[in-house]
User: Which sequence fits this backbone?
């Protein structure tokens, strides 16, 4: 099962990624000023999985990727894939497990093993 992972960028904005059950990042969200905005979008993606639109694109370098849209709103961009088949597998992973994926919050930068 995949997971949504919330983290903080170096410029103090927040983002989330959706990872596959093997730990590979499938897509990365847009930046958010406030953490709850990203959390709300995760819930929105989970609830709207049937109406999400996956726009498949090809980069200038020949890599495949997709943009995740909800209506007209751009929610996230996928990682680059070497083949179209791998891209389709990434989309299938989202469709199968995003609705029930857990949400992990690593935005506080608290370390489990202190110095």
Assistant:
């Amino acid at each position: 099962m995949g997971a949504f992972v919330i983290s903080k960028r170096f410029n103090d904005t927040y983002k989330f990624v959706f990872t596959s059950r093997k730990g590979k990042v499938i897509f990365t969200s847009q930046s958010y000023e406030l953490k709850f905005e990203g959390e709300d979008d995760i819930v929105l993606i989970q609830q709207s999985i049937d109406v999400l639109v996956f726009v498949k694109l090809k980069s200038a370098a020949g890599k495949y990727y997709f943009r995740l849209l909800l209506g007209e709103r751009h929610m996230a961009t996928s990682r680059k894939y070497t083949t179209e088949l791998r891209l389709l597998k990434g989309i299938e992973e989202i469709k199968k497990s995003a609705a029930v994926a857990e949400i992990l919050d690593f935005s506080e930068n608290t370390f489990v093993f202190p110095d």
Observations:
- The mean pLDDT is 91.
